[in-house]
Amino acid sequence: MIQVSNEANLPTKYGDFKIQSFRETKKCNENSCYVDHLVIKSKNLSDNPLVRVHSECLTGDVLGSLKCDCGGELEMALKMIIDDGMVIYLRQEGRGIGLFNKINAYALQDEGLDTVEANLKLGFKEDERDYSVVEEIFKFYKLKKIRLLTNNPSKISVFSNMIEVTREPIIVQCNKHNSHYLEIKKEKMGHLL
To answer: Are 21 and 38 in contact (CB under 8 A)?
Structure first.
């Protein structure tokens, strides 16, 4: 079940946006729990808006971590969607393994494992994310086609089953801290970098 909040204004350093939250009811162990996702969008949407589906990355998005490209991609996307687009911000930290496990994966990376090896060593798949709520968001905004800001072929495949998708690349600058990470995303996960 999905609940949708009211829409509100969000003035930012990138420009003025509209925001809306989508509350997803999920099964957590034996109980139900809520996961709140966020849509940040331009005031007007065309029939083919620019869309970034961005999974939460506290270390990159908030703390400015240089170990990944997440914060840079989010910042770039917010600058690009100001006139016609949206960022769908999904609360699935660490490719869906959660913040606690992500930090444990970081510790394994400090010992020499790459991002995929670290997730596998912790007993997870290389990517545990679930994008089913995105289809509900597309339906809510009556979207039929989008220009998807991504380098991830898995996202292109998943969203192409929901909506007409044209890919737009989103390339952020490499640095000495994330060069190996980006190489692994390209070699092991097939990212279009």
So the answer is: yes
- The reply to whether 142 and 109 lie within a common domain is no
- 138 lies in a domain? yes
pTM: 0.90
Instruction: Quick: pLDDT tens for 161-178.
Output: 999 999 998 987 777 776
Please check if 174 is assigned to a binding site: no
Question: Of 127, 170, 135, nearest to 150 (Cα)?
Answer: 170
Most distant CA atoms of the chain, gap in Å: 47
134 is in an annotated binding site: no
* Judgement on whether residues 152 and 81 belong to the same structural domain of the protein: yes
Which residues are annotated as catalytic?
127, 129
Arithmetic mean of pLDDT, 3-29: 93
- How many separate domains does the chain show? 2
Residue 111: per-residue pLDDT? 94
Sequential DSSP letters for 108-150: HHHTT--HHHHHHHTT--S-----HHHHHHHHHTT-SEEEEE-
Q: Indicate the SS3 state at residue 167.
A: strand
> pLDDT by residue (tens digit) across 52-101?
999 999 999 999 988 888 899 999 999 999 999 999 999 999 888 999 99
For residue 30, is it within any domain? Answer: no
Find out whether 53 is annotated in a ligand binding site. yes
57 has binding-site annotation: yes
